[in-house]
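INPUT
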Amino acid sequence: MGTVAVTMVEVWRGGLLESLHTGHGVVCDASGQVRHAWGDPGAVIFPRSSCKMLQALPLVESGAGAGLSPRQLALACASHQGAAVHVEAVSRWLGDLGLRDGDLRCGTEVSRDSDLRLAMIRAGEEPCQVHNNCSGKHAGFLTLNRHLKGGAEYVDIAHPVQVAARAAFEEVTGVDSPGYGIDGCSAPNFATTVQGLAHAMARFAVAGGGSGARERAMVALRDAMMAHPDLVAGEGRACTELMRAMGGRVAIKTGAEAVFVAMIPDLGLGVAIKITDGATRASECAIAAILVALGVLDAGHPATRRRLGAVLENRAGLAVGSVEKARGFCEGRLG
Amino acid sequence: MGTVAVTMVEVWRGGLLESLHTGHGVVCDASGQVRHAWGDPGAVIFPRSSCKMLQALPLVESGAGAGLSPRQLALACASHQGAAVHVEAVSRWLGDLGLRDGDLRCGTEVSRDSDLRLAMIRAGEEPCQVHNNCSGKHAGFLTLNRHLKGGAEYVDIAHPVQVAARAAFEEVTGVDSPGYGIDGCSAPNFATTVQGLAHAMARFAVAGGGSGARERAMVALRDAMMAHPDLVAGEGRACTELMRAMGGRVAIKTGAEAVFVAMIPDLGLGVAIKITDGATRASECAIAAILVALGVLDAGHPATRRRLGAVLENRAGLAVGSVEKARGFCEGRLG
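OUTPUT
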């Protein structure tokens, strides 16, 4: 996977290159035509959380999610940071279903929101499954499961919820998945190619002209993400800050091990990247570079500059280095 | 730096390669002869904390550290995790010097020891500079500074403490440093080559036959590290666990951005590696692979298996992947 990857990100210190990150990336249109590519478009990757909007398609298409608000749909696509706003919303959602924390199968996770995390430590409270960054996706799975009348173990590979997720994933990526892994939240995560993932994002980007259930579901999920960037991740996070910086006109999503995707309705394009070593600092820098080069993100916006040319500060608060787009990667405007 | 790096570590999930890490590495003897190399031995790197024993040489050579115990010398070479044992020892050391936390220049850092960190949060206590993983190194700098009668700003590049550190660093690596960066703890960190760093480690490995101040300092620092692995890092950490697994016969040290070094007295060899992307999971796996291949670390030891073939567990505790030595890297015994 690494041999044909290109250097996308460099980490500098004291005027010397300290570390670097290589990756694969594709910008593609809804017909599947590759407009720009770096590295190997056919590289097989796990999209991890970057494909949550694909996993949520059956929830909306089936009608199971008919009563859900855009806020809930945004949470279904989210890797939220377990702040109070996320935890309360998912808890209410479970309550609406007549379910509770123990019905989730995502596992517990310490809240990534420092205010809530510190408050819980001080109060001696243990983290629950709703604090897991994937709890919104799992509330969506449980909502679909009620509709499908499946058993309680909704993350099993053969469970109707996951069978539906896989079918939607393969249809929209246009790639028969070569395999699956178990994600951090215990749900199956289906492998695909960087190009397949970018193609799926382009289909989301152009959705809106047709009237089929899938197309309407794509619009609902995409627009929910763009309308509620605070729910898709959280304060200070790349997805939230960069979506705000783009004025709600682009939906983006990160995934573990340095995947990042974008759907750009104004251009009818989808983007997918994977940093080969799995470093999030690099995927955030590289997706920002691509969005700037495509003309949809302001290079000078503070949210951009925190990822693209990010200043590294040491423990005394001194500027000691930076995370930069690699020389030669994404130079100039991508036509 | 990345073009000739070799793939050292692979991250697997669901039977598919999810991420990989490339790097440079050298095993060398005290004459500077390269016995084994991967990637580019001449790659320029920042050793970061892996060179703390080099930075501590002037402390011992000058006689400034004559009254220090092996425990203090181990702390001078440490990236400790700010557990009670480390914080108390460094605080006592400062007290012995008639100095206090505010005399350190390393910056504050939240303790990496979960017991102490949680206790401090519950008690509403703010982290101090002694909690910084480099506070032992800085206590050593302050001890040398008292001897040299330098000013308070002992991390300035032109300060006698840093001038002495640079001279020792360049002499023992055998390389004129091509530049420096400012480290996480605000001290200058001098760049060198992977081969230069391995050569320095080999010199430490064979020290003991001569009677010069430098050789005696090398022996004192190396033996202090091997005798007190708990002080060099902390419970659960790679340096501590792997040094224990090797029965105190090898000294190893990690550095930020995925540097790792080893000094092996029994073989008269030094090792240095740098993972190009800066990922610690990979540097720990790769150094373990090299130490196993050199015959000084048991591949089956639990401490080894937590780094080499480490099982990745998800939030529900399921085994979902592993961090493996790359196929073709360090196969068989390194003669």
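end of record. The radius of gyration of chain B is 19 Å.
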